[in-house]
Request: fold
Amino acid sequence: QIRTIGGFESLEGTQFADGPTTGLIISPDGYIISSAFNFAQQPASILVTFASGKQTAADLVATDHSRMLVLLKANGVSDLPVPTMAPIDEIHPGQWAVAVGRTFRADKTNVTVGIVSALGRMFGRAIQTDADVSLANYGGPLVDVRGRVLGVIVPMAPQQGATEMAGTEWYDSGIGFAVPLGGLTDRIE
Reply:
């Protein structure tokens, strides 16, 4: 669970809720990927709560505006569990997909089930799913039935060059998107 503190209260006419979001650990030393939507308000502070209950501050390291992702670095952590990423060539339409996120209580998980409904969506950047994704899932993983991460759930819009706010209008519509990570995390040092 990730909590952001401070920053803009509204951006592009959208009012931001003061609530938690979700992230995905990608390295044992505290690198975390999340949805850029959750950081569009440019928060002054970022606090991460791990499944163990441990809390720590994090820094925003980078933003990928094309895939609508951010890279965070949690401070003072080591030996974090890192999930297995599904190879991109093993992701197929029709396979089960589970959207996972953390909500207002760090000890509770938001889980919805669906299928991978398409690949290469949003100009080749995303996996499409019919799992019910919401603000609670943005930044969290889309996983297969083996527990492997298919991608990170993000809101996306069909136009290129869209902002972090684009795609939120599809919230709760039965169409969700996840950026595949197979191969991407191998390039992060």
Summary: The chain has a mean pLDDT of 82.
